[in-house]
Amino acid sequence: MFAIPFSKQQLLAAALLIGCLLAGVKFIAYFITASDAIFTDALESIVNVVAGAVALYSVAVSAKPRDKGHPYGHGKIEFLSSGFEAVLIMLAGLATIAKAIYGFWKPSPITALDTGVALTIVTGSINYGMGYLLRSQGRKIHSPSLQADGEHLMSDGYTSLGLIMGLLLIILTGWKWLDGAMAIFFGGLIIYNGWQIFRHAISGVMDETDEALVAEVIAILEQERRPHWIDIHNLRIIKYGPQLHIDCHLTLPWYLNVEQAHDEVKAIEDIVNMAMENRVEIFIHTDPCVNNSCALCTLADCPVRKAPFVEKISWTKDVVMHNSKHQLS
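-> structure tokens emitted (329 positions)
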């Protein structure tokens, strides 16, 4: 993925400025045409501006260093920002549907659709391009705010594409009722996209297990595991915006001294951070091995082995997240 020489704040500030300009163009298109479908697009542009401002604020707060009152940092605010943006999106979708339904009883004459189509093509293309950039960079730097804003703008671009096709169909057929029908359809689509963003934000606030992320971390540990690491269990991952906090228990040979145990813990921290772009804080509780551990311990030269090695247990999500030492069934 290509690198962008701009910070999160600069990207969101640019998106906010562009959003303000596009909102003006979309409302011009609505006043020219009086189309409910174009009103859908214009109304969502207001959401783009408000959501962009909230995202910019949240990223600025998220970048603050840890302090006594926030020992884990300020990253959670990015999930709150995403949730707020999602609520605005869904409200815009509801308002769109309400206006379209009202338009069936109190229709307004639609004019200059060709101009409306041209303006929608321009604004939709710019929105999609900006959204793709924000989403790509958000994924690269693991920013929920940037990803949510990017997904929103990209969905706006898709909506504009469908809107253009619908307006062209009205021009070709003269079926004015399609205007309201499209507004209702795209209003529903906007609500659905908002719900998806809201669902992701809530999962971050509630520390819901990110199955893909857990699998990625466990795969790293499995690939780099060493004989002294008899097992890792009770692994949990919490997201604080782009930063990760990992808790786990590590079973080591009981005879290692404190310095040796510390070296093993430090090795795990270094391996995970190297693979995860130095955005991980790890708290590891060390446990001593027990007699049952011998059957799955791969340490060939263990001086105190009580039983022969039987089988190596692969580290999987179910095994590593379980809150107990590993043992053969």
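The beta strands are 231-240, 243-252, 280-288.
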